[in-house]
Design brief:
34% helix; two-stranded antiparallel ribbon; alpha+beta; 21% strand
Length: 264
């Protein structure tokens, strides 16, 4: 395994990323040999067939007690994934509570309150097609060592056209956790949302408003932009327009600024 890792380090075009992965595998004292092998296989997208051969070699040489099948060491979920259709895409919802309970099944959180950062952004799958993922991710602000957790994933050729179906399960569960907290490995914790992390297009999508390039696209104030045909840009000339308020926004009182209802 060491030879394979060193070879990949030499051949990769991203040495800093590989060095970080290698350092994690080699140095992490808490991880077992089996866990390190799993991390290596997932990090470098090792095919199951290749991993099966490696497991066969290691088991025959009594390196360690390892499973014979790659699906066991990779902890591949063999339960059929439940998805729902949203437009032309498919949506899988794992859940905030399920993610947290699964991660802390063998450890007790070292904090009493957790603040969640939520990130939503598109991820293109291929250069030659419009297929994309739109995941809903969270991480715990007070515990940066906890990896980013996948709450949900939408897969399609465009963003979901129904924000209610896409965001409602997440928002409802988040409100429930903020009201009642969560128990992780017999420890009760309070939960709150700290921030939603998104770039400008994703932010406009989540809020159900015009993109920042539109005439009514300013997220901060009610200034209406003017389209400049010479430079093909929307220009916002005013700086003294009234600022948008949470109350009016929730009432959808900004007219053309709103383009769809959103549960967020």
């Amino acid at each position: 395994m060491m030879i394979n890792i060193i070879y990949l380090m030499r051949s990769t075009s991203k040495p800093t990323v590989v060095m970080r992965i290698f350092h994690h595998i080699a140095i992490t004292s808490r991880a077992t040999f089996r866990e390190k092998l799993r991390y290596w296989a997932l990090s470098f997208s090792i095919p199951h067939s290749a991993l099966n051969v490696l497991l066969f070699i290691l088991n025959n040489n009594q390196v360690s007690q390892l499973p014979k099948d790659s699906r066991t060491i990779l902890q591949t979920n063999r339960t059929p994934v439940q998805t729902v259709a949203i437009g032309t895409g498919q949506f899988w919802y794992n859940g905030i509570k399920k993610c947290l309970v699964q991660h802390f099944r063998n450890t007790v959180p070292r904090v009493d309150n957790i603040s969640l950062n939520n990130s939503i952004d598109g991820l293109p799958l291929h250069r030659s097609s419009s297929s994309q993922f739109l995941p809903i991710l969270i991480n715990i602000h007070e515990m940066p060592e906890v990896p980013v957790l996948k709450v949900a994933i939408f897969s399609g050729t465009s963003k979901p056209d129904d924000l209610e179906l896409y965001l409602r399960p997440f928002v409802s569960e988040l409100n429930e956790l903020q009201d009642h907290g969560i128990t992780l490995n017999r420890k009760r914790l309070k939960v709150r949302i700290r921030a939603v992390i998104a770039d400008s297009p994703a932010r406009a999508f989540i809020k159900g408003v015009v993109n920042f390039t539109g005439k009514h696209g300013c997220l901060q104030c009610t200034c209406v932009g003017e389209y400049d045909r010479r430079f093909h840009k929307t220009i916002f000339k005013g700086i003294n327009a009234p600022r948008r308020t949470d109350t009016i926004f929730r009432e959808c009182g900004y007219g053309a600024h709103h383009i769809r209802q959103t549960p967020y």
